[in-house]
Design a protein that fits this description.
The protein starts with a strand and ends in a 6-residue tail after the last strand. It is globular and about 40 Å long. The protein is an all-beta fold. The chain is built from no helices and 8 strands. An 8-stranded antiparallel beta barrel has the order 1-2-3-4-5-6-7-8. The chain has one domain. It holds the Pfam family DUF736. InterPro entries: DUF736 (IPR007948).
Amino acid sequence: MTTNCIKFTSEDIETAKGVGSISTLNFDLDITVEPIASSNPMAPTHRVLGRSPRGKLVECGGIWKKQNKDTGSDYFTLTVRDHAFNANLGKAASQDDMSLQAIIPWGPKEAA
């Protein structure tokens, strides 16, 4: 699988499981994502799980569904806590398969 992508089990990302990887200059992480059922609108849609040095699955972040304030369209963001990593999910380059989402990093906003 291409790095910095998540392959979901269906195009309905909000309810699909997925596997992927995130590679940066600071870390290289294989991830599993599992949907979360919650009535809280502020809750993540998925748990992000990575492997500990001993190979155990450990929750390390989440995926949230958000809405673009200008267009009203929905999109998803991903965080990995221990690495202060933030990203948006989007259609992978040169792909028509919406179940394959690219991980598009963005940095934290500078404090004012």
